[in-house]
Amino acid sequence: MRHTRLGAAALTAALLLSACGGGGGDEGEDSGNAAPAGGPRPGGSLVLQLPTEIDEGLNPMTTSDPSTMGLISGTVYEKLVEYKTGPDVTSLEIVPDLAESWKISKDGRTYTFKLREDVRWHNLPPVNGRPFTSDDVVATFEALQKTTEVHKWMIEPVESIEAPDDHTVVFKLTHAYSPLLDYLAYHFNMILPREGLEGEFDMQKQAIGTGPFMLDKHTPNVEWVFKKNPDYYIEGKPYLDEIRRPIMSDIAAVTAALRSGRLDVGTTSDVNVAKSLDGKGFTVNETPGAPVSVFINPEREPFDDPKVRQAFMEAIDWDGMGQNIRGRYNLTSLVRPDISTAALSKEEVLKLRPYSPQNAKKLLAQAGLPNGFSTKLMVQRVDDEDVREAQWMQDDLAKVGIKMELEMVDPSTGIDRRRNHDFAVAKALRGVHLPDQVWRDFEPDSLENYTQIDDKELYELLDRSRTELDDGKRDEIYKQMQIRMETVIRQVYYPIQKFDYSIYNERVRDLYDSPIYQGKRLADVWLSDS
């Protein structure tokens, strides 16, 4: 199996779904609620918080909403390959899902997948429980290449997908492409039935997959309900009869629902809330989450001057902000330390991006702004910490003469305005996971290239990273790219990585932090009597 080794903190918790990202458990810790003696007990309903309602529909071909992916990927729909989950996971290990095995040619240009032969689609019209075959895989990826700009870039080098028989699929590439297997395991690339792709049912409103759970009903802005797939191919699973996903964003409401037993699993970024519940009928896991992201628009004066962008960042004590507001955090560059060995160390980050109000003032003077200037910060608010961080930034910038007005927006508005470049400076949480995915954001045709980066040298490094099959050499390329972003481009920063807290009722068993977004782990979850 393929592995991507992580740093000291392990994985991204699929529990921590929000409009922006997730987290993961510390390596070496037994995260989640382990099973007691006696083994799993079938039945019951798990009530699992969904922090935000989806806003782009259910169709995986057209949505870029991470809440949608967390809702249906792995639960309703499955993929060719998956990221392993469980109590002992300390790396992003790629394991079989609908494909039971695969081979990669020596030149990295041919991928051959052998599919499971015992899989059926959900017994819902018009698919009606028919067998899953290679034709569905071909239909999915051919549709992806033709119909969507959302994530077809993930398979851009694939020139053909062939099905020599019902249970074999062959991907042929124009050139070696090191991220391909990672992207096939990523939550976007769910395998869809040909009937949906050909319009026999509305994939915006209905989801018919091969996964352990079936979409039952949806009450907008209230709740999603999933029921057990009785024909699931893994014997005895799933254990749960039902999963309920109430939409709850207010932490006071989440806390009250946990305490009353109306909610089995919730999440928070507030360490005090987590501490108040830990050990009192609940298990709490601390997990690294999404990076805090800062986008500086060079089309807005005075940020067209790189010296001003540098002054803005060096005027802020990011380390102090992490300590005082988040409590637990990682000081970071662009690549997440919990995901990749290509991440820069804290010491390397401080050397590239020191906290230096004195130098910030000098840079502003050199830019012809000795008295500073006024600007606006658009803040995408998910929790109270987002606001407190913005206020911290505001206070630090005022000390060097930069007067910054704060403008609070909801996640949907924030994403829309960033994509339309409608901001001077924007603060958000950018839920990217894989190293290649980080850099994809900055390509000219990316929807997420909010600051319109266009840098020839960065793109040359990106091309090299994608054809480099040696992990160590690829890491070095990623480090060069981070250094260039921090010292030359100076338009996008992920200065700190926050930590989150997943809170489990103790009756919830075998629910573990898992890599990236994926819901298949819920097939292993069961509820104890105690």
TrEMBL record:
Signal among keywords: yes
Gene3D superfamilies, sorted: Dipeptide-binding Protein, Domain 3 (3.10.105.10), Periplasmic binding protein-like II (3.40.190.10)
InterPro entries tied to this protein: Peptide/Ni-bd (IPR030678), SBP_5 (IPR039424), SBP_5_dom (IPR000914)
Keyword Signal: yes
Keywords: Signal
GO terms, molecular function: peptide transmembrane transporter activity
UniProt cross-references to Pfam families, sorted A to Z: SBP_bac_5
UniProt GO cellular component terms: ATP-binding cassette (ABC) transporter complex; periplasmic space
Protein name: Solute-binding protein family 5 domain-containing protein
Biological process terms in GO annotation: peptide transport
